[in-house]
Amino acid sequence: MRIMKTIQFTPIKKSVLGLIPPPIPASKMLPEWYKQQNSIIDDKLIMNDKGSLNITVKKCMPVLDDMTAGYYITLPSDVIVSFKEGRALFSWSLDVLSQQNTDGKIDVLPNLVSSHSVEQVSNLQIPYEYSNEPFKWNNYYRITTPEGYSCMFRQPSWRFDLPFYTFSGIVDTDKHPVPVNFPFLIRQDWEGIIEAGTPIVQVIPFKRTDWSSEVLGTNNKKGSREFRKSTKKLMHRYKDNWRSIKVWK
Predict the structure, then answer these.
(1) What pTM, to 2 d.p., does this model score?
(2) What three-state secondary structure class fits 223?
(3) I want to staple 73 with a disulfide (CB 3.0 to 4.6 A). Which of 132, 150, 201, 227 is the partner?
(4) How many CB atoms lie within 10 A of CB 24?
């Protein structure tokens, strides 16, 4: 029986609840391009002279497992992106970050976006389509994993349509006591609205362990036998023979 681990998302303030949506399983946010992608080219299954079927990326289980791994942190508000004198500017509804407490005082949360200095990544070769100034998504939930587990934070997988690029990082979230914020770049050729609910960070918990590496010979008779067995089926070879189901709730 598989034992399910629990990742915890704790709001930084009580006022976060009801204002800022908590992270959700990535499996609940498959991108539109993937949903609309046909599984078979031209809707008719054929095999070419090299023995390959005309299937698309939608039949690739490693892609689906990557796309649905972990959890998404999403934008709680529409964010307007504009440029002035070459510098990106961000604005959003202030209401999403403020709430009146029972004592009548207004509780204000940190801004959705803050900035880093250009010098922090001065040696990084940033692609020409992105502004060289790094910004930061501020996070309103502390992320806690069981002992021995860390989290990888990265750009939402297979989302080349997004006008920003969130930097990757690994944090030992079983020990880190405060929320993790996420540096990102914005495209300098893009202005418009990044809509509320857009995934901005993919959170993938994993177990820490030590590894060593070794290089073996080319003899892989067992693997070759196993692969030949799978060729009896035209499709779903990996899915039916070797794939393990991943569950994120």
Answers:
(1) 0.89
(2) helix
(3) 201
(4) 16
Q: What is the 3-state secondary structure (H, E, C) of 87-103?
A: EEEEEECHHHHEEECCC
- 80's torsion region: left (phi>0), alpha (psi -120 to 50) or beta? beta
> Would you say how long the chain is, in residues?
249
Rounded to an integer, what distance in angstroms lies between the CA atom of residue 77 and that of residue 183? 18
pLDDT in tens, the chain (249 residues): 778 999 999 999 888 887 899 999 999 999 999 999 988 877 777 777 666 777 778 988 999 999 999 999 999 999 999 999 999 999 998 777 776 666 667 777 889 999 988 888 989 999 999 999 999 999 999 999 999 999 999 999 999 999 999 999 999 999 999 999 999 999 999 999 999 999 999 999 999 999 999 988 777 777 677 666 666 666 677 777 778 889 999
